[in-house]
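[DERIVE STRUCTURE TOKENS]
===
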Amino acid sequence: MVKAVYRDNSFHLIDPVNLQEGDEVELKILPDLEIKKLKGAFRIRETRTIEEIIESDIFE
């Protein structure tokens, strides 16, 4: 997963990516609010840990 921030009508990457110029990608938008709603639901306090669980193959 790559994180980005939407600002000035475009996505600004937070994490580096290994892509060639012109490569096409597909984005799946996950509002931060949805992830934050789960914070504490499993006695997990770190938002990053919750994101990793959600993105794991277990929930596909």
Observations:
- The two ends are 14 Å apart (CA to CA).
- Residues 32 and 47 are 10 Å apart (CA to CA).
- The chain has a mean pLDDT of 78.
